[in-house]
Amino acid sequence: MAEQLAIHRLRARKPLDDNAIDRFLQQHTVPIVEGAKCTFLFRGDADEVWVRHRIVGRPQRVPMRRLPGTSLWFVILELPAGSRVEYQLEVRHGEHHEEGNDPLNPHVANSPVGSSSVLQATGYVVPDWVHPDPEARPGRSST
């Protein structure tokens, strides 16, 4: 029998209070990667929360669920081994929507259009082409 996911173990805790959630977040790297299952988390007051990504063949806006009686939101996505996903969170407060990087995840990718949070699934390997080539001349900025 497969081990229960961390989020499900948390859900079973009694009492499920702020202290239990604090300990849980201190013990886990977010998103929590457990084999093919990746648990995205958001902690805070909101009316709705979504994970926004660009995974081909999947809805680009995935709703999160709140753990009843808490300020912790979660969604579990199954990702192929070796995946790397850039994402942001969308949070709705009434009619106001905010999009931004995951405040629980320190891993960020920067691009000309901004930054995104990064999830590295089980088996992800940084490709060789991202490392500087010692035999190539370094580039320079045009500014």
UniProtKB/TrEMBL annotation:
Superkingdom of this protein's organism: Bacteria
Chain segments carrying region Disordered: 92-113
Protein's recorded name: Uncharacterized protein
